[in-house]
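All the exercises in this workshop are built on plain-text protein records. Sequence and backbone structure share a record, each on its own labelled line. The question running through the whole workshop is how a given chain folds. The record below serves as our worked example for the rest of this section.
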Amino acid sequence: MLFTMNWKSTAFVSGAGLIATWLASVPSPTTTLKMVAPQAQPASAQTAVSSEIAREADRLERRNRVDGDYNRPSRNLFRFEGVRTTARAASVAPAPVVPSTLEPQPLAIHLSGVAMDRVGEKDVWTAILSTPTGVVLAHLGDQVAPGWQISTIESESVGLTRPDGSLLILPLTGK
């Protein structure tokens, strides 16, 4: 026989389970709690226990004295700021500044395309450049980065004049 559960049978089974759990957890009335009086221990046992406790307390107290003073943590997890330097840390002489012999960072500009528009009888070339800030449409003479100026635009490349006056050729990357 197949039995289907509806809301009434579900409520009955749940209620029966709750009542059975309650009856199983209630202590029986025949069980009574009896207060047991502490038994008297012999004096030698009491002194042994108290001397053992005293030794343990002395050991713990000595360990606490050895731990030392409080040291401030190097960072505060609840603030977004650096640790203020103390006078002791500030007294250290700063390292000498060595001039950098590294090459300057490469220019993060890529030539994505070149467009030509006919304005009257004249062809106007536009360079389509990809920069970290987005796409830039530039013409001859436009400045595309601080100090970098477009000097030539051809069908497959663009010439940029560096801040020192030298020429950098960007080939068409197709990106």
Observations:
- Residues 110-171 form one domain.
- Helices lie at 7-25, 43-66, 87-90.
